[in-house]
Write a structure and sequence with these properties.
single chain; 112 residues; mainly alpha; 5 helices; 83% helix; 0% strand
């Protein structure tokens, strides 16, 4: 496997870890004292745990590619989490935006 392909897979994995962190931060935000909630600390640790792997990713991919892969995967994963776990709804314009985000990712990875 090429290093750049592995770097994209690592980026996607970090997106999943980041979404898990966001899940716990969302739980913490629903508490009276959010910063003292155990959920806040779990979310914080999950975010911090990805810092080491970003060094590997940034050695093998352009920053523009990293940011697009990470951003689009985070948007899709967070949207899914909001709909599934927090019963948030999506408007038709938001769905169009998600489709456009995926299209942008495909274009960027095709030409980078």
């Amino acid at each position: 496997m090429q290093q750049s392909n592995l770097a994209i897979i690592v980026t996607l994995a970090f997106s999943i870890v980041g979404v898990c962190g966001d899940y716990f931060l969302k739980l913490a935000s629903q508490q009276k004292d959010s910063l003292r909630s155990p959920w806040f600390y779990v979310g914080f640790v999950l975010y911090a745990s990805t810092a080491f792997g970003w060094l590997f990713v940034m050695k093998h991919l352009k920053l523009a590619t990293v940011s697009m892969v990470y951003s689009v995967s985070m948007v899709l994963l967070l949207t899914t989490m909001g709909v599934v776990f927090f019963q948030e709804s999506l408007s038709s314009l938001e769905i169009v935006g998600l489709v456009m985000a995926v299209g942008a990712l495909l274009l960027l990875t095709r030409f980078s």
